[in-house]
Specification:
The structure is a homodimer. The first copy, chain A, has about 80 residues and is α+β, with helices and mostly antiparallel strands. Chain A contains two helices and five strands. Helices cover about 30% and strands about 35% of the residues of chain A. The first copy, chain A, has a four-stranded antiparallel sheet. The two termini of chain A are about 20 Å apart.
Chain lengths: ~80, ~80
């Protein structure tokens, strides 16, 4: 398992309720691909949403987001981290 | 205090030691601007580095990174999050 950060755009004005709804669609099917979403952050001003996940590979994250209706191609594997 | 995610580019091939060195330069001066870096993730393949911080505002994050030699203009305030 590796960690991934992915970035969504075009979410200007997103609020907590909308983010929660979108995130639920991901977490409801994440097990099917062995993905676990760990954290989500949103910037309603720029419309960017950032997801941190653990997954077997980048394509698994891509497929979960796509099936959930939250498609993005911008997914980075982040094997190095500092807490 | 708000949370921020900033993105650095051009760090292809970065390893844990180099990331630790760069991060230390930030944390050594973060107090001067009331910033606290919480987590850093790096993707050596794309050269992207992501920092999560708490700060009074975006400019404070920008100034700490600039003074530390880790300048980036790509800083997003992320007031909405899901754990």
């Amino acid at each position: 398992m590796s960690k991934f950060i992915d970035i969504h755009t075009g979410m200007k004005g997103i609020d907590k309720a909308k983010l929660t709804d979108a995130h639920k669609k991901d977490t409801q099917i994440e097990n099917s691909e062995g993905v676990k979403f760990l954290h989500v952050w949103a910037d309603p001003s720029s419309g960017k949403v950032f997801c941190l996940s653990e997954a077997p590979n980048k394509d698994a994250v891509l497929r979960v987001h796509k099936k959930a209706g939250n498609a993005t191609e911008e997914i980075y594997e982040v094997p190095i981290e500092i807490e």
